Amino acid sequence: MKNPLFTKLAALAAITLLLLFGLGLIEDVVRDRQRYRSMTAQGVANSLAGPQTLVGPMIHSACVESWDVATGQGEERRATEQRREFLLTAMPEQLTLQSGAAMQERSRGLHKVNTYNLKAHITAQWGSLASLQPQATVKGSRMQCGAPILMMAVGDARGIRTAQLTLDEQTLPLKPGTFHPTYSRGLHAALPEAVRDQTNGLSATLELELVGTERLAMVPLGGNTEVQMGSSWPHPSFAGRFLPSEREVKADGFNARWRLSALATTAQHDIANGKKVCDAASTAGSDHALAATAERDCADSFSVAFIDPVNPYTLSDRATKYGVLFIALTFVAVGLFELMKKLRVHPVQYLLVGSALCSFFLLLVSLSEHLPFGVSYAIAATACVLLLAYYASHMLGSLARGVPLGAGIALLYGLLYVLLQLEQTALVVGAIALFMVLSAVMVLTRNVNWYGLAPARAGATHGTTRPEAA
Q1: d(CA 429, CA 436)
Q2: Are residues 347 and 249 in the same domain?
Q3: What's the pTM?
């Protein structure tokens, strides 16, 4: 061939494209496994209970105002009844919730889902209940209201295990449903009609045991709302419109406290107007404009997600994104051995080395379904490093050349593991490491005569033969 260097570069470019295609197939496998896990989480939620949202306690009463309107003239004149239906609500002046969430891991096949058992002690206090007094809008109208109902709405009523309501030291029976047009899932108790005229306030205590999946949200309905939550789960993710005013996260669990005033939230007004309570996770991936629109259309809330930071599929997906960098750096290292030691490495050997690098990511995702991620990573990395070091010793002509290449690849795997554990500083650490590699390549090749490279390689020997014969 007239220019073997260009032929070699073209072959390496074709091999790189082929390996990129293989990496793409591996990424598809990881995404498929992620979808299976999402389907598992949805299956557990369908069979047990989904994410929970607490709205209440609050008191409401459905009313109808009717009046007569005269129509027609003379003998055809008659009265037609018109009516207006509306809902009266009374929000608590003071709302206190003390809760503890015990985690319960559920699994289907290879996939595990975090569920929780929440035990909550909820205290609500009302002052004046004047908001339950209907006000006529038409002179001479007739007013009819249903009994006041104290309600507690939840996201998924299937998760209610036990509930007990005490109203001013009197236990009231609870019934399913809320009779609220918007927040219909939950429980309620009918109150005596006399509470409308009560001026010395009202106090209710609710003991609630509730199970749910992965996430718990709350709406701050009180004039003053105080929520305290503790759990043995060490990886909470706080979201929603309000972060905790105090929080302590340790290896054995977390404690968080929210203190909110009605002056800082529109939750009372939102719930009174029937706004829906949105899932914080549903808008997390949307763009800024869509998220802002969702916030306007949703009631204020805050939430805790019991996330798994070592989700093997998320980490495997992140690792696979570094596959191109692994292949490029390894090819550069092999190319340096070719250049500095006057060797010739066949494109097929490059292909085999790249294939071994790609197999690491497939090993990682498959092993992490059965073993802890750290153990899976160590096994996959060790297997690939040993294989590549053994093969490089023959490809480059001696053990003294294969071992350093294997050590370099082991260093890459170590760096990748560090990057996977980092979140905020992953970019800067990766950028610094890549700069150091580039600097090393430039230093090692600083005296290379690139114009004279092709003639110099004319007499080079194959890596599988004895290089001393060159």
Answers
A1: 11
A2: no
A3: 0.70
